[in-house]
Design a protein that fits this description.
The radius of gyration is 21 Å and the shape is globular. Helices cover 78% and strands 0% of the residues. Helix 2 runs parallel beside helix 7, helix 11 runs parallel beside helix 13 and helix 12 (276-295) packs antiparallel against helix 13 (300-331). The relative contact order is 0.15. It has a single domain (15-193, 202-391), classed as MFS general substrate transporter like domains (Growth Hormone, Chain: A, Up-down Bundle). The chain has helices at residues 7-14, 18-36, 40-47, 52-80, 82-101, 110-135, 141-170, 172-185, 204-213, 215-241, 246-273, 276-295, 300-331, 336-364, 370-379. It is mainly alpha-helical.
């Protein structure tokens, strides 16, 4: 009797490895988030009547709460397991997007929206990063980070265009529904393997003490937090202010991600073989230059060219940077989750203070591209994550 290789058997074989299950989950999640990612900041920006001050205060509140609550997220993760924590987080994102849709009808939903988003992030991201460290091999960490970046970029290749088309033809309600259904689907591959439990022991005081003990890593993570929030919030609002419509915005993002997806896999292999510190030093300079180029963008074609350059520069920096962080977390062994919680505290508090700083500046000079200069400066700080200690400046005292 001939053997029939059914699609079910193929899927079961493909998802046999736990790391593969993780990567499939990541792909589906980024497919969902990519459909709304660049349009969500614009939604908030339009809600506040194109006023940058309340727009950035809104996001500052979210990231500030995330930074303060993330220790609580670590304790939940330890109690119910990584996969269940990620699953529960999706319900908070679901409620958050519902609040956004009805925001124009009831402005009181603004406060619940902030808390729901912050709690969803608090539950998801620590569990996500801890799960990645646990299910990947240490001696192949850079290659795995390259795969993770490549998969996330690949999933995002078509999603901005899909999101732009849905938004232009059907509006935010349909877009939010599609995103929410896809988000829930992203958790299913994770449950094809056993639940993973961590023992998270940090108190709030001990978690905050790690910031002082790891000064160079703290500075590198703070730099990443500033740079990340600049591309997530400032760049979409800037493109919208230039008059670039949703379809073109999606196309610009899609092409940039397609280039980054291929390049990320290459960078993963290079990072595995080369000195990460040297790679990161050159890439951080390139990334800083990319932000300077973005400052001078005047039209759609300029935005297209600048964003492609940025994606190459960002991928060059993010793969060795992320690999270094995961390796440091892995070396902590049982305390890997504590290290990753510390990472989230620094990232999000840096975003909080940066957004508050920008809100003050934009109150007097409402031009989003001013923030690009600060993003360029912050990009140079990524190199500190690969330092064992802060550089000495004794020569300044002579």
């Amino acid at each position: 009797m001939p053997y029939r290789f059914s699609p079910e058997i193929l899927l079961q074989y493909f998802l046999k490895r736990e790391s593969t299950q993780f990567f499939v989950s990541v792909a589906i999640r980024y497919l969902a988030l990519g459909m709304v990612g660049i349009y969500e900041p614009i939604f908030i920006y339009l809600y506040f009547g194109k006023n940058l001050l309340p727009t950035f205060l809104f996001w500052a509140a979210i990231y500030g709460l995330f930074g303060l609550l993330v220790v609580f997220g670590g304790k939940i993760m330890a109690r119910i397991g990584l996969k269940h924590t990620m699953l529960i987080s999706q319900f908070f994102f679901f409620a958050y997007y519902l609040c956004l849709f009805f925001l124009h009808q009831n402005s009181y939903l603004l406060i619940p929206a902030i808390f729901l988003r912050a709690i969803g992030m608090t539950l998801f991201w620590p569990a996500f990063h801890t799960d990645f460290v646990r299910c990947t091999e240490r001696d192949k960490r850079a290659v795995e980070v390259g795969k993770l970046s490549g998969i996330s970029f690949t999933a995002n290749i078509i999603s901005p265009t899909i999101g732009g088309l849905i938004l232009a033809n059907f509006g935010y309600l349909v877009l939010f529904i599609v995103v929410l259904v896809t988000l829930f689907a992203s958790t299913f591959p994770l449950f094809l393997s056993k639940e993973r439990h961590e023992i998270y022991t940090d108190s709030y005081f001990k978690a905050w003490q790690r910031i002082k003990k790891n000064k160079s890593i703290t500075l590198g993570l703070a730099s990443l937090g500033i740079e990340d929030i600049s591309i997530a919030l400032l760049w979409p609002i800037f493109m919208f202010a230039l008059g670039i419509n949703f379809e073109k915005m999606g196309a610009i993002t899609t092409i940039g991600l397609a280039i980054a997806a291929l390049y990320a896999i290459y960078m993963g292999r290079i990072t595995q073989k080369k000195n990460k510190k040297k790679l990161l030093r050159g890439a951080s300079i390139l990334l800083s230059l990319a932000w300077v180029v973005k400052y001078f963008v005047k039209d759609t074609f300029g935005a297209f060219l600048a964003h492609n350059f940025y994606r190459i520069a960002k991928t060059s920096a993010s793969v060795p940077f992320t690999t270094t962080i995961y390796e440091k977390a892995s070396l902590k062994k049982e305390e890997a989750d504590e290290f990753l919680i510390y990472r989230e505290i620094v990232l999000n508090l840096s975003r909080l203070f940066f957004l508050l700083f920008l809100a003050g500046i934009f109150h007097f000079f409402p031009r989003p591209q001013i923030g690009f200069i600060f993003a360029a400066i912050a990009s140079l700080g990524l190199i500190f994550v690969a330092q064992n200690k802060l550089p000495s400046f004794k020569f300044l005292k002579k």
